[in-house]
Design brief:
The complex is a heterodimer of chains A (about 260) and B (about 250). Chain A is mainly alpha-helical and about 260 residues long. Chain A has 13 helices and no strands. Chain A has two domains: about 1-30; about 35-255, Orthogonal Bundle (MetI-like fold), CATH 1.10.3720. The longest helix of chain A has about 35 residues, at about 45-80. Classes of the chains: A mainly alpha (about 260), B alpha/beta (about 250). The interface between A and B is medium-sized, with 27 and 27 residues.
């Protein structure tokens, strides 16, 4: 019993120790700046630009991510196919990849003369553009979304789908009328996490889209640029906005009660 | 079990005591290659540990401004050290000019856009990258140089990207994403050896050659070691290392 108690105490102590550290760290982001400054910074031209660009690109990226994450999650959860293990590993890879490396890979691909001309012929250019911001965000957050969708579908009993098939629905009808409604919590969680991830993407955006002032400047870039300028007020303000987005996302995620 | 936890705790505490280098230097990111060699040599000669933080000049300057402990400050341009002196963060008598910092135009291998000098950058359709005028020192210098030469208006529409970090500029040139970038000559030394980029000199009448300074900060913990390091990187011995990495020593 004695041994178990020490073990229990240590685990709880470490959990609470880290929590206290995090609360202090997050708290200092809120305590250091003055509210009036933050409010003023929020309405500055640069911040408005970056906020708007972050929201617009974040929403578009999240849309694209979900269009891919739903079928990817379903395929990985339900079907057996050639190269499944390989597909799963590669799709998950960006979770463990540093964003800077991912950005460099995307720049090498999309900046390649051949690929670039090909994409330009259909009106796409990802290098140093706002489209590039979206591409960077999509590739960074897709693995998170598809993981959540896979585990969501894993928890749905396939029997319900079999019953639906035996009652006459096609595979597609079953997916739309049975699987999707059952997965709605997972879809919600996956959407908010993707959005938060998109908004917070820094390294990938910096390398692929350049991170230019008032051009491809999203919130994390604003934070970084203003650290370089020595303008701590603006840096802290973008930090607070990013933190607020993450808090809301995690709150909804916890409410949706899905596992990663 | 009890003993195990105790030992772990003691080890952790001891670890935290011995950790923390004797000397902390803040250096411009562009100086990383020679600075790492100087740092390691100094560590071996003096049996001390030196930690280096590399960042854009603006970034390391604001870190000092925010009161972060720092022993020696080596930004990418004189202006930052002068500002630090005005604010009383560095010791005046320790300021030494190290090397020249010469801006050049870096172009991809083969110079596809046929850049011949600063004026080429105003040609419509040419793709140009510069550093953000407020972040790395080279960005500020590039804008000032172009403004002084009355070319900023002409170049501005050609700017594809204003990079927050100087390292991005070289990647974009090497990967042929831009036709030209204004960058420090020393930064291109390595890429030039590999045959990825070429450089085009900026005309003397336009160019703004800067010097890289070093100085000891007032709030350092080890002023004696800091002075020794400061003197070492400016010594003839140190200069051979700067030269090895493509930096030109200051003549005075």
């Amino acid at each position: 019993m004695q041994r178990l108690n020490y073990f229990r105490l240590t685990c709880i102590f470490l959990a609470q120790f880290v929590t206290v550290l995090l609360v202090l760290a997050i708290g200092s982001l809120l305590i250091v700046p003055e509210f009036k400054d933050v409010w003023q910074n929020l309405w500055s031209e640069e911040m408005q630009y970056s906020l708007k660009l972050s929201m617009v690109t974040g929403l578009i990226s999240t849309g694209i991510v979900m269009v891919f994450a739903l079928p990817i999650g379903y395929a990985l959860s339900r079907f057996e196919f050639f190269g499944k293990g390989f597909t799963k590993t590669i799709i998950d890879l960006p979770v463990a990849f540093p964003e800077l490396v991912l950005g460099l890979c995307l720049l090498l691909l999309f900046g390649n003369a051949f690929v670039k001309t090909l994409l330009e012929s259909i009106g796409l250019n990802f290098v140093f553009t706002k489209q590039g911001v979206v591409a960077a965000q999509v590739f960074t957050s897709l693995p998170y979304a598809s993981r959540i969708m896979k585990s969501t579908f894993d928890y749905i009993n396939p029997r319900l789908e079999f019953v639906s098939r035996s009652l006459g629905y096609s595979m597609l009808e079953t997916f739309i009328r049975v699987s999707l409604p059952l997965a709605k919590n997972g879809i919600l969680a996956s959407t908010v996490i993707s959005f938060a991830r998109c908004i917070g993407t820094f390294g990938t955006v910096l390398i692929l889209a350049g991170g230019s002032y008032m051009k491809t400047e999203v919130l994390p870039v604003t934070l970084y640029l203003n650290i370089s300028y020595g303008n701590m007020g603006m840096a802290l303000t973008s930090g607070i906005v990013l933190m607020a987005v993450s808090f809301i996302a995690i709150y909804i995620f916890e409410k949706a009660e899905v596992s990663l | 079990m009890k003993q195990l936890i105790l030992t772990t705790l003691i080890l952790l505490l001891m670890g935290s005591n011995t950790y923390g280098a004797d000397l902390l230097i803040f250096s411009g990111a562009g100086l990383i290659k020679p600075m790492e060699e100087l740092r390691i040599n100094f560590e071996q000669q003096h049996q001390v540990t030196v930690d280096a933080h590399y960042g854009s000049s603006g970034e390391i300057f604001s870190m000092v401004a925010a009161g972060q402990p720092c022993d020696v400050l080596i930004p990418g341009a004189e202006k930052y050290t002068q500002d630090a002196l005005k604010n009383g963060w560095v010791m005046k008598e320790t300021i030494r000019k190290l090397t020249l910092h010469v801006p050049v135009i870096a172009v991809p291998k083969g110079n596809p856009a046929g850049v011949t000098g600063l004026e080429s950058l105003t040609r419509p359709g040419i793709k140009v990258a510069i550093g953000d005028p407020n972040a790395p020192a080279i960005g500020r210098v590039a804008k000032k140089m172009l403004t002084r030469a009355n070319m900023w208006e002409g170049v501005a529409p050609n700017i594809q990207v204003m990079a927050p970090t100087v390292n991005q500029l070289l990647i974009y040139v090497a990967l042929k994403q831009v036709d030209a970038a204004i960058i420090w000559a020393d930064l291109t030394a390595w890429a030039k050896d590999k045959g990825k980029v070429e450089t085009v000199a900026i005309e003397n009448r336009f160019n703004m050659i800067k010097t890289i300074p070093t100085a000891v900060c007032v709030n350092g913990k080890n002023p004696d070691t800091a002075r020794a390091f400061n003197a070492y990187i400016a010594s003839p011995q140190g200069m051979t290392i700067w030269q090895k990495w493509g930096f030109e020593p200051c003549s005075d």
